[in-house]
Design a protein that fits this description.
It contains 19 helices and no strands. The protein is mostly helical.
């Protein structure tokens, strides 16, 4: 009996020749349109993704007066990402991708404006909740990848979601390099320079919200549901809802339709742990690297360049990662992500504080490893859910992702204060390495 790797292609039994490979059918026109709109929204929203990463820790050090508290902004906006993933995932489940993703970006834009106001007024009491609200934009940026896979054929899902992730690269890479320019603009308006990246975030998230709300038609989640066969036990009212706003909260859905929303098999927890064990050390390392570089005399231009390389590595490999995941299966790719992230953290631990090239290489490798883990983990989760269903589960998975990021950010400051940057990096290496045995064990269980 043949087995199919998660996110991969079917394997034929040993010794049996397979038929010649037929060329892949082209994507459906509606899928091409949906991907085009998602790509456009990701291009502009990517700049918002980097504002907190680049200057969040520096803002905390400046406004709170302590390196030990420098991880608080990252913890807050990743915590906000957790809440945002929960709200946006539930809204997508009830109303569809278009209103869910549009609302998420709008909330992120509101938080960005709040951060600018807090910095301008020097009000920590406003800064902290604004960072929390800003995190909704980060959550939406990641949740958009699931929309790319809603209508994709099973053998193309990883590549579809990877294309959406890749689209965030341009804005995400440009954002850190625009720190000096946005700082100059903020200064010209009488606002402290560190607020500049959040001005860019507010603009990017607003444009993304408008694009999605106006152009994401047909709604991919609605269309995927409409193409599902309606179980005989469902009520007529639910059959009508199949092409509209499926719900899990007591609407007209019948028992069989509710059961379809539940994840199938062990794929969801496996995929979740793959993402969590890559997210926590990656965020911890990323959070304190700007502080580490600043402490060694490097300015915001250098810091922005290093973060740009890191973020480019988080998204640029997406097409190749998606192809590998579709062809080889998600679990081997996940195993490789753990090894690579461990190596990146070890390099960061060994690099001298004044060696920008070595630290840049370490952060670049960490970004690639994160990409491998995110795409492969998402593919595992997506394969475990029925097409067009389970948006709540996807949102909850990204809640876990945000919890892991928030934990890594919160622990990073005290770890550096207690033992230095190298100690933090070593702890990150040990955590990342746990991904590999997890993925290999899951692969053996599926063999």
């Amino acid at each position: 009996m043949s087995a199919t790797p998660v996110g991969g292609v079917a394997r034929r039994p040993p010794g049996r020749p397979g038929p010649p490979e037929a060329p892949e059918a082209p994507e459906a026109p509606e899928q091409r349109r949906i991907l085009a709109v998602l790509v456009a929204s990701q291009l502009v929203s990517g700049a918002g993704l980097t504002a907190g990463i680049v200057v969040g820790a520096l803002l905390a050090e400046q406004m709170l007066g302590s390196t030990g508290l420098a991880g608080i902004p990252t913890a807050l906006f990743t915590g906000g990402s957790m809440l945002g993933a929960l709200v946006v995932g539930r809204l997508c489940q009830r109303r569809g991708r278009r209103p869910g993703l549009g609302a998420g970006y709008a909330i992120g834009a509101l938080g960005s404006v709040g951060v600018v106001a807090a910095v301008a007024l020097d009000q920590v009491a406003l800064l902290l909740p604004s960072l929390l609200v800003y995190g909704a934009g980060t959550a939406t940026n990641l949740l958009a990848r699931y929309a790319g896979a809603d209508l994709a054929a099973p053998h193309r899902r990883a590549r579809a979601l990877s294309r959406v992730l890749l689209a965030a690269t341009l804005g995400a890479v440009a954002g850190p390099n625009l720190v000096p320019l946005t700082g100059d603009i903020a200064s010209a308006w009488g606002i402290p320079p560190l607020a500049g990246p959040f001005l860019l975030a507010a603009l990017g998230y607003t444009v993304a919200a408008v694009l999605l709300t106006a152009l994401l038609r047909p709604d991919p989640l609605h269309l995927a549901r409409a193409r599902l066969p309606v179980p005989e036990t469902d009520t007529p009212a639910d059959a009508d809802a199949g092409g509209g706003s499926g719900s899990d909260s007591g609407d007209a859905a019948g028992p069989a339709r509710k059961a379809a929303d539940r994840p199938r098999g062990p794929g969801v927890p496996t995929g979740l742990w793959i993402m969590l064990l890559g997210q926590l050390p990656k965020v911890a390392l990323m959070t304190m690297t700007p502080v580490h570089l600043a402490a060694n005399g490097h300015g915001t231009g250098t810091i922005g360049l290093v973060v740009s390389l890191h973020i480019a590595a988080m998204f640029l490999p997406s097409p190749l990662t998606g192809l590998l995941t579709d062809r080889l299966g998600a679990l081997p790719v996940a195993a490789a992500s753990g090894v690579l992230l461990c190596a990146a953290a070890l390099l960061a631990a060994a690099a001298p504080g004044d060696s920008v090239p070595l630290i840049a290489v370490a952060l670049t490798l960490a970004g690639i490893a994160w990409n491998l883990g995110l795409v492969s983990g998402t593919a595992v989760i997506t394969a475990a859910l029925p097409p067009g269903r389970g948006a709540n589960t996807q949102g909850l998975a990204d809640v876990g992702l945000a919890v892991a990021g928030s934990t890594g950010a919160l622990l990073s400051g005290p770890a550096v204060t207690a033992g230095g940057y190298a100690t933090l990096a070593l702890a990150c290496a040990l955590t990342a390495l746990l991904v590999t045995p997890l993925a290999l064990r899951a692969a053996r269980a599926r063999a």
